[in-house]
Amino acid sequence: MSAPAQAYEEGPVTGGGTIEGTIVYRGDVPTTKIIPTKDVEVCGQPREEPLIEVGSDQAVLNAAVYLVDVAKGKAWAEPGKPPELNNLKCRFEPAVQMIPAGSLEVVNSDPMLHNTHGYYGKRTAFNLALPNKGQRIPVELKRAGTVRIDCDAHGWMEGWVYVVDNPYYAITGADGKFSIPDVPPGNYKLVAIHPFTGPVEQPVTVEENKPTNLTIELKK
């Protein structure tokens, strides 16, 4: 479910290729009924929301794509401000994100208590009471893996953080597309995952200075 971030070796990449493609889902798109039971002036009215956001061309929004067991390659991007998980109008923003192992700032932008709770599997990664608007608390996620987020005060809230131990990852936009550049030539295992479907693993070969184009179908 999670593992300590491995020692990744940064270095120059010669003849790197690009893994690019599209994530699709061709099944029925179910919905879930959201019924806010408190703080409705902020949280909104009852509504139906899709469990997976799929465009007219079957492209999937917010699918995470990453390579596993990469020992060395390109440098990490220059660090900016820590990534954020924002409690905003009783939703997690962003609902799905990918971050390097390390710091995450949990923020409350609502004028009432949120209790933001993160789990690696069944094990608590952090459990934070944020009673005040504008409050922010940093947490450390040092293990690669999937962190599911919920709110103990608003049980319908759910978010996902995928913690990675190498810089070869991407998350899809509304067009379902992803691009992972500057990959050293070689054979890899690529994982595509969405909270609704779970993971799909696919072997991929990267050739020197060439793109590798994939279409990956998620299935429930």
The average pLDDT is: 95
Count of alpha/pi helices? 1
Q: Please state the structural category.
A: mainly beta
What's the multimeric state?
single chain
- Give a quick account of the main beta sheet: strands, pairing sense, barrel closure: 6 strands, mixed
Order of helices and strands: EEEEHEEEEEEEEEEEEEEEEE
> What overall geometry do the principal axes of the alpha carbons give?
globular
Low-confidence stretches: none
Q: Indicate the percent of residues in helices.
A: under 10%
In terms of DSSP E residues, the strand content is: over 45%
Description:
This is Carboxypeptidase regulatory-like domain-containing protein. The chain is mainly beta. Helices cover 2% and strands 55% of the residues. It is built from 1 helix and 21 strands. A hairpin with a 2-residue loop joins strand 8 and strand 9 (91-93). It is globular and about 55 Å long. The two termini are 19 Å apart. The model has no long low-confidence stretch (mean pLDDT 95).
